[in-house]
Request: fold
Amino acid sequence: MTSVVTPGTVIGTASKNSPGNGVMEENGNLIALLTGNVVEKEGVMSVHTHNEMLRVEVGDTVIASIVKLNEKNGEAVILSVEGKPNRAIMADQEYGQFHVTGITDRFLHNTADGLRRRDVVRAKITEAGNVVRINMREDERCGVLWALCPSCGDTFVTDLKGDWNVLCPTCGDRSFRALADDYGGEAGKAALNGAGKRWSGEAEALFAKGSAGRATFIAEDVREDGRPREYFRFEGEGGGGRERRQKAAPGCRLFIGGISRDVTEDELRAKFKEHGKVTDFAMMKDENGNNRGFGFITYEDKKMADAAIAALDGQKIKGRRVGVRDADAPKDEKPRRKKIDGARIYVGNLPFKASDDDLAKLFNDECDFVHVEWATDRNGRRKAFAFVTIRPEDKAVEVSSKLNGTEMMGRSIKVDVAKPSGGRRDRGGNKNDNSSGKSSREMRALREEEEDSKKKRRRPKRD
Reply:
């Protein structure tokens, strides 16, 4: 039998025939890899073509062009195979994958520190199965053969200065490339890679900037006429196509801390809407979309924000006490939670099924005033201990001794006068005095919100 097929066409089943030239088996089907005629002979199905295509094999040396770079891996399109006929590569082997450790004999933080898109490289085939893998490290002949300056488009020439081994003769940009020994048609260029050497402080400082340090700007004096670049924006909108958040009036923007992970954004927003018109709301989340336990809310008027602070600061929402305060006020100006007068007593080894009322009953017969504050975890679940504030204060020792060891719901509880808590101390034992006026948690929250806002702004395209 003969018929014309194209790559990807199912031409039979593996249960009846076996694959031959130009055919592969996948999920029980025989699939054509070439454009040509299907030929079946003695149970073997092949595709015969007038324009034969080439299959790469382990050990082949290939010429490829870099098309994709991730942080630790990348992809190159294979152009040709050295020592074999100049034919197109089979469709399933057209792209080769590589890891950052297979670029050069030197530590690279990122693939972009040794290669860039459009670089032409020589590499060895190390795997030719379902995935084609290439390596440029094991042979000095392998590496970058030709590279363009991303800033102006001219061809890099070799010029060693510190860690940088290539130079753009037009714009003067310096960079590092994992050079092949015959880069630019001259021998001995692999020695410029600095195999095994550590990076200088200047290079490490650049790499530490992350994607910003590796960004490329088009040189104005080469591709433009020297005038400042201007980028189009819709009127009244920010760079990201979304309206930018206006800066809130003093006292209108509140920080919310201690948010239970069981609370949804709608539930929390509805709770705060009871006290006025909300103009902005942001619950901070991690990279997986989980609630991080704090957020920000902005009211139309300061009176509304003050009402929300008075009503909700210290209140329990889904089992956790939230802290609500002015996000922009210095720490010493923020209202502190009112301290309850009395002696503070620690109660441990409590049964989890016990309630505040159950615990208060133990102290009611001995005290004139009892206030229970149960400890909870980050998700609002109760821990096995609580603090009880009693009056009169001078009975604290007597009551603690009397109730210590009392059985409660099958558990022997531990009761003792709570020790006063000092300021937070650092590793050296010294108190950590925050001279910035804000707690470290609030400072981190403010930074994260600012970074989140920046991500939403449109940035100019870069090569």
